[in-house]
Amino acid sequence: MSLVSLAREIALQCDARGVVTWADERAAFRLGPCVGSALASFAVPGTSSKIDRFVAAARSGPTADWEVGLVVGGAPVTLAMRGEPEGDGIVVVASFVPEDQAGKLASVQASLSEIGALHRETERQRRELADANKGLLSLHHELDDKNIQLRHASDVKSRVVANVSHELKTPINAILGITRLLLDRLDGDLTGEQEKQLGFVRSSAESLGLLVDDLLDLSRLEAGKHPLRTSRFTVADLLASLRGTMRPLATNPAVSLVVEDAPADLPALDTDEGKVAQVLRNLVSNALKFTERGEVRVRASHGGAGRVAFSVGDTGIGIAPEDQPRVFEEFTQLDGPMQRKVRGTGLGLTLSRKLAELLGGSLEVESEVGAGSTFTLTVPAVHADVEEMRAIEEKSTVLDPMRAPVLVIEDDRQTLFFYERYLSKCGFQVLPARTLDDARRAMDKVIPAAVVLDVLLEGESTWRFLAELKDDPRTADVPVMVVTVIDQGQKARALGADEFWLKPIDGSRLVRKVSDLAKRDRGVKVLVVDDDPASRYLLVRLLDGTGWSVLETGDGAEAVRLARAHAPGLILLDFVLGDATAFDVLDDLKADPSTRSIPVIVQTAKQLDESERERLARETSAILQKQTLSRELAISRIREALVGAGLRSGATEPARRT
User: Fold this and answer.
1) With the C-alpha atoms ordered 485, 489, 492, 496, is the resulting torsion angle positive or negative?
2) How would you class 197 by CB atoms within 10 Å of its CB: exposed for 0-12, middle for 13-18, buried for 19 or more?
3) What is the 3-state secondary structure (H, E, C) of 350-402?
4) Closest CA to 226 of 272, 180, 176, 285
5) Preceding amide of 321 cis, omega within 30
6) 116-173 pLDDT, tens per residue?
7) Among candidate residues 566, 550, 552, 606, the one with its CA nearest the CA of residue 583
8) I need a surface site. Which of 24, 387, 555, 608 has the fewest CB within 10 A?
9) Is residue 562 a contact partner of residue 568, using CB atoms and an 8 Å limit?
10) Residue 121, exposed/middle/buried by CB under 10 A (0-12, 13-18, 19+)?
């Protein structure tokens, strides 16, 4: 391997416009043929303006510590650049930032994507599980009888996933369906007592469904896979549900189960309700087992620093101080008459503490032998993943005209994080949508450069939404990439999808494909020239939400000055400007090399004669009639002109000038 291939530092020389005029051997090896090309043409989409600023700074004097992104070999890389003036141009020395960190990030993101895919698979299996109360009790007895075999997490995972999935969920769904039929009075009216009883049956069946999910979570937990399903709920609703599901387990008349009402000032929780409930069920179940008389009391309180604390206290046998750390160890059961009488798996408290840590909280115990125990679960009111998701959503509320917006329709937070990190790093602005309503609201504000769509959103028909996108003239040209866990590429393409991928996906490949699909006109400047204020206002409003930066003027001479100063990607020019015509402006533009290649679209209400039309056809990109001008037509013609001019996505000026 040559020293050139191992080198991380390159040297370049550019003219005043940033066009490479000389490159050393190392630059030619790493970047390929680059002499004669604008340095900005190698920029990661959305970052070419930063290179232009670097060139301007280096022309003014020595400058250093600029980090820019270039596309090398089809993949984005980061360079640290230094430059200083040299004659009419600049000299540049750049070093490649080590790529090891990017590789590790890709590995982590691939793992996160795998977690998201496994979560989807769990949801699918949950809808197909079999046998409710009887099957769950049978499974508990089997787990108790084979306690020694539970030392191996792989055994837990294989048995739960292979034997529980179908055997439990189907009868649970049957119970839920039949109780719903009865509660809807399809077979006749019910007495108040019957309705109450059926409500308990349905509530118990729903709890059984959650327990089955908990067993699947156990296998994921032991295998290092942690699906997290966050939702917003109140502490009062959680305790009410716990009160209803756990009361039937209080079969000892000498022990009362007391679930206190939640304080009114407790904040709502935005975390995984199922996992919080699972920990509390485990704690209450243990307390009932080891309490012969007295009470088991559940209460909620403020945990400090934005946290909520749940305590489960009992008047049972208690735990000696030296044994308290051991109760959280796997397969540990303390010796004693009561423990020998009440058999268990020895995994409940271990799993509960791991779940507490997964929720970002903790599980602690205080106990005194003969006086009872109190277990306290403390969790953040808002899970860290939810806070990160909110940050992404807040960032998307303000559109960045220098970044191409990509609408990502995905209800799995981890997958959304993956998309946001990769796409935003490479010059795109991610607009997250976890529901179709969110997606429709986003598209009312802006037409995205591309859409990334998961067709397995919770309880929604995304296939129909895909068809709607392609049937609507306003969005028909927006490229759509379907990314999901089910292999239905033929159906996706039949409904108009431009690309279909199966999860998990590679981040670098994702960026390249989205860059290829996205319209390459985002962030460019459009100069609107019209001497009629009403017509000019209408044109500016028609371009709202496109991501283009709009300049406007009503004077032809001012239009030429603005074109020289700002180098717009396109000029939208009225044919008649006071005493002048579009030809006068075109002549001035063509006379200046810096504005000669800017594409121009003429819009007019005048009936053009044949000679005027022929000349405009030669010197402009398109002619639009004001009488028939619409948003769709204007955007379509502008995009065609930008593509014809060779603009890169996110650029603020054409990649090359001649």
Assistant:
1) positive
2) middle
3) HHHHHHHHHCCCEEEEEEECCCEEEEEEEEECECHHHHHHHHHHHHHCCCCCC
4) 272
5) no
6) 777 777 777 766 665 555 555 555 566 556 554 544 455 445 445 545 544 666 677 7
7) 606
8) 387
9) yes
10) middle
The DSSP string of 527-590 is EEE-S-HHHHHHHHHHTTTSSPEEEEES-HHHHHHHHHHH--SEEEEESEETTEEHHHHHHHHH
> Which residue carries 């009362």 as its tokens?
256
Query: DSSP character for 437?
Result: H
For residues 528 and 573, give the distance between their C-alpha atoms in angstroms, rounded to a whole number.
6
Measure the CA–CA gap between 311 and 265, rounded to whole angstroms. 17
Non-local CB neighbours of 48 within 8 Å, separated by 6+ positions = 40, 41, 648, 650, 651, 652, 655
Rg (the chain; Cα; Å): 33
Question: In Å, how far are 70, 231, 504, 624 from 418, measured between CA atoms?
Answer: 21, 20, 11, 42
Can you read off the two tokens belonging to residue 445?
A: 């504000």
Please, is 512 exposed, middle or buried when counting C-beta atoms within 10 Å of its C-beta (0-12, 13-18, 19+)?
middle
CB 473 within 8 A of CB 632: yes
3-state SS class at 321: helix
Backbone dihedral region for residue 10 (phi beyond 0: left; psi -120 to 50: alpha; all else: beta): beta
What count of other Cβ atoms lies within 10 Å of the Cβ of residue 473?
Answer: 9
Please name the helix (run of DSSP H) or strand (run of DSSP E) that holds residue 257, with its range, or none: strand 255-259
Using one digit for the tens of pLDDT, what is the confidence trace for 316-353? Answer: 888 888 877 777 776 455 555 545 454 444 567 877 88
Task: Write out pLDDT tens, residues 282-310.
Answer: 899 888 888 888 999 999 999 888 899 99
Could you identify the residue written with the tokens 């423990």? 339
Residues 6 or more apart in contact with residue 542 via CB below 8 angstroms:
629, 630, 631, 634, 635
Angle at CA 92, nearest 5°, toward 87 and 97? 175
Considering only the C-alpha atoms of the chain, give the largest distance between any 2 of them, rounded to a whole number of Å: 107
> Worst-scoring range by mean pLDDT, 128-142, 499-513, 576-590?
128-142
Looking at the DSSP bridge assignments, the partners of residue 89 are 86
Contact at 8 Å (CB) between 440 and 144?
no
What is the token pair recorded at 603? 């819009």
DSSP string covering 198-242: HHHHHHHHHHHHHHHHHHHHHHHHHTT------EEE-HHHHHHHH
Output the pTM of the full model.
0.42
The 10s digit of each residue's pLDDT in 61-90 is 998 888 888 887 777 888 888 999 988 889
CA dihedral 478, 484, 487, 493 (to 10 degrees): -10
Which helix (H) or strand (E) segment is 436 a member of? Answer: helix 436-445
